[in-house]
Amino acid sequence: MKNTDRRKFIKSFTTGIAGSLVLPNLVVANDTSISKKWPRLKEEDTEAFWEAVKEQFVFAPRLRYFNNASLGPSPVSVQKAAEEFRKTLDGFPSKYMWGGWQQKKETVRENVAELFSVSKEEIALIHNTTEGINLIARSFDLKPGDEVILADHEHPSGTIPWEVWQESRGIKLVRPELPILPKNKEEIVEIYKKAITPKTKIISMCHIVNTNGMILPVKEVSKIAHEKGILVAVDGAQSAGMFKIDLHDLECDFYAASSHKWLFSPKGVGIFYAKKESQHHLKPLMVARGHTDSSIRRLENYNTRNLSEILGLGAAIEFYDEVGQQKIHQRSYELKSYFRSKIEGNPKFKLKTPPNDELSSAIQVVEVLGKNVSDVKKQLADEFNIDCRPMTGFNLNALRFSFAIYITKKDIDELVTILEKIA
């Protein structure tokens, strides 16, 4: 976000808000000394910097949270902003629900668009990824015999909408099988290429699969698809915020993401991108007054909404920008590399996420050999207060760890020590 845009953002968010609100500088919950160090630390990329970032998140006592891929926390500054917005809304409900915050909402849209390097006219502010995939799957008047490609690693929320809205009408869902540990992205591209037939109309794919953290080659698949007149929809639930994303460069037609994971927004807020040239395919899931709006805003028209959470997304984008998009991108890969360096070569463990940086980032999955993953998960929770996700599908029998920006190298050292003890 440019400095002028940041000032515009801060001004728009602080105007008309009851009480005091600290934005955008990071709010430290327990250690004001770090707050004083922030002007110096923010120019660095050191462990001290990331320790300061960690202080912005407040977890339950003794909890070690490695489960960001399931649901992310909001930093203190975002929590405070959302709470102030709620108070303001309750103080004058009709004013702020219907028009009083219209420009502020548009500022959020602009800042989200800038984060993903697209136009604000290509961004809708929705509830979550599931809503976005439903919106896409329900929009098309496909005919019996038409085909939609959905690889076997899609999240249930990425497959069920297609099953309900399209397969039930006779559309064929093609389910190619992806390898757990591909050697390179070309291996995955070839699988999608072989799945395409003259009847293929849409490819719906994850950017990062939730099963083992594998990144799928959206850009390469989109190029192949568009050469054949096929549309590409992307489930970006696990990628949005983990690393830098230019949605125009990805070349997909649609991209849906939940901002309450790697962007740390309030819960129940999502982002939907539709390429300008592809928006005419889409129909709103809900219709109300204004449904004839030709802009992308017709896709988010619910009449009443929890606008406090939408504006809270704006505060989350501001927090994200304060930390630094490029720093977060690099940190995601740095933590991945650091964790793998501690695990690789140890005969007690087997990594089940591809090592190539083109194929994985801050989600890593590891099996404790000879142990049932459910038992290990329980032991981690009961004895060590570690929350992570056990993955049992695809014969993984492995633990999924999320290395978000509040995870430090010290946290990883402690995690690996505990895993070795259990093993």
CATH-defined fold name of the largest domain: Aspartate Aminotransferase, domain 2
Q: Per DSSP, what share of the residues sits in E-state strands of 2 or more residues?
A: 5-15%
Major beta sheet, strand line-up: 2-8-7-6-5-3-4
Q: Which CATH architecture of the largest domain would you pick?
A: 3-Layer(aba) Sandwich
Biggest sheet architecture: 7 strands, mixed
**Helix and strand succession?**
HHHEHHHEHEHEHEHEHEEHHEEHEEEH
Outline: globular
Instruction: Kindly report the average pLDDT value.
Output: 91
Structure summary, number of beta strands: 13
Let me know the CATH homologous superfamily of the largest domain: Type I PLP-dependent aspartate aminotransferase-like (Major domain)
Number of domains: 2
What is the CA–CA distance across the termini? 45 Å
- The CATH class of the largest domain, by name, is Alpha Beta
The secondary structure category is: alpha/beta
Radius of gyration over all CA atoms, rounded? 22 Å
Q: Percentage of helical residues? A: 40-55%
Low-confidence regions: 1-34
Distinct helical segment count: 15
Topology at a glance:
Elements: H1 3-14, H2 32-41, H3 47-54, E1 64-65, H4 76-91, H5 93-100, H6 102-115, E2 123-126, H7 129-139, E3 147-150, H8 156-165, E4 172-174, H9 185-195, E5 200-206, H10 218-227, E6 231-235, H11 247-250, E7 254-258, E8 270-274, H12 307-323, H13 325-343, E9 349-351, E10 363-368, H14 373-384, E11 386-387, E12 389-391, E13 398-402, H15 409-422
General description of the model:
The protein has 423 residues and is α/β, with parallel strands linked by helices. It has two domains: 105-318, Type I PLP-dependent aspartate aminotransferase-like (Major domain) (Aspartate Aminotransferase, domain 2); 326-422, Alpha-Beta Complex (Aspartate Aminotransferase, domain 1). It has 15 helices and 13 strands. A seven-stranded mixed sheet has the order 2-8-7-6-5-3-4, sandwiched between helices. The chain has a four-stranded antiparallel sheet with strand order 9-10-13-12, with helices on one face. A two-stranded parallel ribbon has the order 1-11. Strand 12 and strand 13 form a beta hairpin. Helix 4 crosses helix 5 (93-100). The longest helix has 19 residues, at 325-343. It is globular and about 60 Å long. The relative contact order is 0.15.
